Amino acid sequence: MSAPAESPHPAASARISPKLGGATASGAAAPAGPGPAPHQQNGPAQNQMQVPSGYGVHPQNYIAPSGHYPQGPGKMTSLPLDSQCGDYYSGLYTVPTQNVVTPNTANQQPGAQHMYGRGPPAPHIVGSTPGSFQGAASPTLHLHTSAAQRYSHFVNHYSSPAVYSANSSVASQGFPSTCAHYAMSTVSTAAYPSVSYPSLPAGDPYGQQMFTSQNAPTVRPLRENSFSGHSTAISHPSPLPPPPSHQYHQPQSLSGCSTLSWSASGLPSTQHNIVRNHTGSLATANSNPTNTVTDSLSCPVMQNVQPLKSSPVVSTVLSGASSTRTPPAANRTVEPVASVTQPSELLQQKGVDSSSTTSSASPMPNSYDALEGGSYPDMLSSSASSPAPDPAPEPDAAPAPAPASSAPQPSKMAKPFGYGYPTLQPGYQNATAPPNSGVAPSSPGYSGFQPYAQYPGMNQLSSGLGGLSLQSSPQPESLRPINLTQERNILPVTPVWAPVPNLNLDLKKLNCSPDSFRCTLTNIPQTQALLNKAKLPLGLLLHPFRDLTQLPVITSNTIVRCRSCRTYINPFVSFIDQRRWKCNLCYRVNDVPEEFMYNPLTRSYGEPHKRPEVQNSTVEFIASSDYMLRPPQPAVYLFVLDVSHNAVEAGYLTILCQSLLENLDKLPGDSRTRIGFMTFDSTIHFYNLQEGLSQPQMLIVSDIDDVFLPTPDSLLVNLYESKELIKDLLNALPNMFTNTRETHSALGPALQAAFKLMSPTGGRVSVFQTQLPSLGAGLLQSREDPNQRSSTKVVQHLGPATDFYKKLALDCSGQQTAVDLFLLSSQYSDLASLACMSKYSAGCIYYYPSFHYTHNPSQAEKLQKDLKRYLTRKIGFEAVMRIRCTKGLSMHTFHGNFFVRSTDLLSLANINPDAGFAVQLSIEENLTDTSLVCFQTALLYTSSKGERRIRVHTLCLPVVSSLADVYAGVDVQAAICLLANMAVDRSVSSSLSDARDALVNAVVDSLSAYGSTVSNLQHSALIAPSSLKLFPLYILALLKQKAFRTGTSTRLDDRVYAMCQIKCQPLIHLMKMIHPNLYRIDRLTDEGAIHVNDKVVPQPPLQKLSAEKLTREGAFLMDCGSVFYIWIGKSCDNHFIEDVLGYPNFASIPQKMTHLPELDTLSSERARSFITWLRDNRPLSPVLHVVKDESPAKTEFFQHLIEDRTEAAFSYYEFLLHIQQQICK
After folding, report:
1. What pLDDT is attached to residue 477?
2. φ, ψ for residue 864, nearest 5 deg
3. Among 434, 561, 623, 834, which one is least packed by beta carbons within 10 Å?
4. Is residue 1213 over pLDDT 50?
5. Which of 712, 695, 802 shows the shortest CA–CA distance to 754?
6. Could you tell me which of 538, 457, 570 has the C-alpha nearest to residue 504?
7. What are the residue boundaries of the Sec23/Sec24 beta-sandwich domain, all occurrences included (predicted)?
8. How far apart are CA 524 and CA 512, in angstroms?
């Protein structure tokens, strides 16, 4: 790889990125270079990977045509090491905090951009640079994300595609479901889809409430320490003054003068070649010119599985295992995979990916990027009488970190999504629609057909919304000016709901639920200049795989997608006539397939606009084999357990083994489900659970410097065939290491072994760790200084100490393996480093500080409840997610746990219903020609039952041209969550102080911008529109969270875990962590109560988070998301204490009480039903603490009263005065 070429623009990026950070669209992208791609799984590339023998039979609905997965030379030939992995690893691990680092471009040799000569330049992404969390952007770098390779050489290894009419049944033979033409055929002979479509209740969440965003105009000059993209050096003005009488406690982080503006005019220009990393922040250029492929490959982290060596392998029979058991019968019947149309399966598997109409002339795609990907070359040879064949499907498959093509190309901004994608063939990126695409064909099937009534589409709504302007009508409530310094009670008494977009009634009903998909602005600014004036963040928050009770599941031979941008047909497309529909993202006119003319719900023909895909904004498709690169993988679970002395003393093994025994039959999967166990201390212990053994067998590998698998074929076993051996092992494990005195932890080598064991199939690795890794690869040293926990200055070591865990995570992601971390530690364990293994492999993190089985029973109970949810919740494997948006909009920064595959494609080895994501948007082209914009996310994954599924969410929002309309549509909670994600990235890439300043200045800039639009504004008033009235309160709450607070003792691991939670939690759970809910519960009544499962659930009003709302005569419940506090006043009524707590009076309540007894009283029933209702559907089971007034435990409770002043932080009113002071400067 040659050195990157010098940028045509000198560094103008000493200033921190306009965004707080995040995984940039291209930052972690690993596009493939030209030429044949290596054989791949449903995701990352791999070497000569065989289909494991453990796959068993194919699912019932999986069609495997002959020759579909042959081991032919073209399919299995792997690329040379340097071409297969070189670009993927190119400079990847130089900076441990980034997802993918591209080589330095400062000293590139001339002509380097021609290194990969085939194919046109790909779209480039504007985003963060080599340091994944760097804040200063350098416009001198870029990442080439195009994979302009051809797939023709793979055609011979698949069955020959066939051309067939709509009445043909060729698709049933397993060929790509091709449609070369749609001959008019009789309805009775067409193959129609089956649809599982539960009736939606009247109160269905779809489309009821829409999201909004925050937007505040400003005419003030850009503040220097802001989220703007202006290339200005950050200055550090005088820090935010401390509360009166506590000046010496003032943290320097709240620097009010150095403002973080949201002006998008500072976004990198289209000429800048900028690299984006996984977290999406713009970063400084890498100053190391030797950041090359050879550097990254010189010390490979993972070695191929080694044969048995001279290393000691001790074979031990586990004591306590039964030796009289009869092995399972060899002729055991295999449980068939449930039909995708069975209701039970539909309820269990609620995630679906995208599939598309295939073309008879298109070869099978050979990468996951192609499966879901952009678009194939358009067939321009269509005639008026013969519509062009649909391109091959592009599923949202889980892309593996593929070989990266990092040859520099002329810099330019990525084209609007829906046009040029990395998988485009040469010469197609600017291809136009067929000349006749907008003209009614002359085919007899179309003759004389007139447009008909339907739900309003893009074309019908243009006229209806053309005159939309909130300024020309009575002022809406969301624009009512509020003087924040005089309005004492701005917090509503009911929960804050997402604002509903200003659409007509029909579209409101069809729109996506804000619980799954919401935007920070429900009124999208028409231009980037208008967005800059508003000084508000523009982005999306997604909860794509959340649990749903109502979800249309569609089985169809043809998944209808736009032939240009690959958008899935949705409720917001327009039907020009019965045979043609217009894409709502790229406006391409497409033909309606013959199969789509039939409505399986009404059993009628000729009404495509009434199909379930066009009547629901959230749907799930059963994907055909066209969306697979191999047979769907089985569910594979590997548990890696710390058994050192610390772990045994903590006692977590007892809880884990008991939970596994109780939920073993509830693990998601089918008859192919496999499971395995490893334990480690200073050595690594494997367990042979092969069917036929009378007892589990332990195999000990003491050579941790060169780990190998002693018996690779017997360490992952079929769950049902070896269930008795598994139970014996789980019963024996808690007592096996009781007398150990081994204090060391070889976590790194254990993870290396787990990677080798899981590579053939992929799956989920669950790691339980109780201390700092101290042996072998990945060993860590303590970096925390306890004396600095309360520092108001620099907070150090928020980033990883080594890139080992990030490298390992990326290798795991490449083999479709996610790593989930359970950290149960009473001492510093460097979570900042360990978290990388989950962050970059799409895993999740659980943290239990001060865990002890007996000394801390509340944590033990929390672990038990969390494990029950963790082991039984639904799961998707080998997934990819792509987000598309209307032409003119673009995505540039992603937040969450994933690997960025390309500009808009996220690789997710696992996906779970508790994972949330965020993405930042910019307006590249003016939206003057449309009145609506749409966003669509497609999640392609393999269900635990072995089905390939696609879940699609589509969101529609209006476009506005006035500043007032922008402010009217602010979704303040969505904006806060996006800002929180950006602040986490800023904290790591720059400093915690800069992140805090950026948050403060986000409020200053937005309210200042709004104030410039209000006439007759009093100079002494702090005015905000009603839509932004909670903005300062939420920002103050964010500043007082563990992730960002200063001046209060905060353990480093606690702070890092809070940041991890911000990055991966869905909005609904994250908001409770940022701003808890406070209720008074000693006066619960049935007034306003709701009925849930035949139980009456009281609905007490919300209280503001201030001690002035507390009374010693009352009892209050605080919901902080992962923890509940019940504060009991000293003079609380004894009747309440006895009826609810079970004690006669206040004095008799114990200091540590974590349960409410089940008492047969009305007060107890009301309190328990309310708390149970709050607890339901939480990703983390909340721990309950009963806190007595004047007890030492009340300190933690009062820290959550964010409206009150503390030694190092403002009260809410003081914070408002500070904001006002900054605006008046």
Report:
1. 79
2. -60, -45
3. 434
4. yes
5. 712
6. 457
7. 876-960
8. 16
Residues 6 or more apart whose CB falls under 8 angstroms from that of 981 comprise: 20, 21, 22, 895, 918, 1062, 1063
Report DSSP letters for 439-464, one per residue: S---STTTTT------S--HHHHHHH
Question: What counts of helices (H) and strands (E) characterise the chain?
Answer: 27, 37
SS3 195: strand
Tell me: pLDDT of 285 over 90: no
Residue 20 and residue 121 in contact, taking contact as beta carbons nearer than 8 Å: no
Q: What is the mean pLDDT of residues 460-474?
A: 44
Query: Do 254 and 1047 form a contact (C-beta atoms < 8 A)?
Result: no
From the list 146, 145, 144, the residue with the least C-alpha distance to 5 is 144
Segment 971-992, tens digit of pLDDT: 999 999 999 999 999 999 999 9
Structure tokens given for 542? 């997604």
What are the structure tokens assigned to 1213, written together? 């009113």
Contact 807, 794 (CB under 8 A): no
| 410 in Cβ contact with 55 (< 8 Å) | no
Which tens digits make up the pLDDT trace of 994-1007?
A: 999 999 999 999 99
Contact of 1123 with 866, CB cutoff 8 Å? no
Q: CA-CA distance, 921 to 710, in Å (whole number)?
A: 50
State the number of CA atoms in the 13 A half-sphere of 252 facing the CB: 13
Distances (CA, A) of 25 to 142, 281, 605, 787, 883: 12, 10, 42, 39, 11
Q: In whole angstroms, what is the distance from residue 37 CA to residue 1219 CA?
A: 55
d(CA 1225, CA 1220): 9
Look at the alpha carbons of 180, 183, 189, 190 in this order and tell me if their dihedral is positive or negative. Answer: positive
Q: Which domains does the chain have, with CATH numbers?
A: 643-874 (3.40.50.410), 1076-1201 (3.40.20.10)
> pLDDT-based confidence at 474, cuts 50/70/90?
low
For the chain, the average pLDDT equals 71
What is the DSSP secondary structure assignment for residue 1206, as one 8-state letter?
B
How far apart, in whole angstroms, are the C-alpha atoms of residue 1049 and residue 874? 38
Is residue 626 within 8 A of residue 395, CB to CB? The reply is yes
3-class DSSP state of 180: coil
- Quick one: DSSP state of residue 189? G
The pTM of this model reads 0.68
Q: How confident is the model at residue 79 (pLDDT cuts 50, 70, 90)?
A: very low
CA atoms within 13 A on the CB side of 430: 5
The pLDDT of residue 31 is above 80: no
Distance of CA 1198 to the CA centre of its chain: 32
Q: Which of 160-164, 340-344, 360-364, 538-542 has the highest mean pLDDT?
A: 538-542
User: Is pLDDT at 116 greater than 60 in this prediction?
Assistant: no
As a whole-number percent, the residues of the chain with pLDDT over 90 amount to: 47
Q: Which residue has the tokens 């269509």?
A: 382
Average pLDDT over residues 642-655: 94
Residue type, 648: V
List for the chain the helix, strand, coil content (%; round to 5). 25, 15, 60
404, 410, 411, 416: CA torsion to nearest 10: -80
For residue 793, name the pLDDT band (cuts at 50, 70, 90).
low
Per-residue pLDDT for 403 more than 60? no
Q: What is the rounded average pLDDT of the residues 189-196?
A: 43
Amino acid letter, 1050: T
Exposure string of 602-638, with b = 16+ CB inside 10 Å and e = fewer, is eeeeebbbebbbbbbbbbbbbbbbbbbbbbbbbbbbb
Contact 1010, 960 (CB under 8 A): no
How, if at all, do strands 674-680 and 636-642 pair?
A: parallel
How many CB atoms within 10 Å of residue 361? 15
Kind and range of the H or E element at 824? strand 817-825
So what's the pLDDT on residue 943?
A: 95
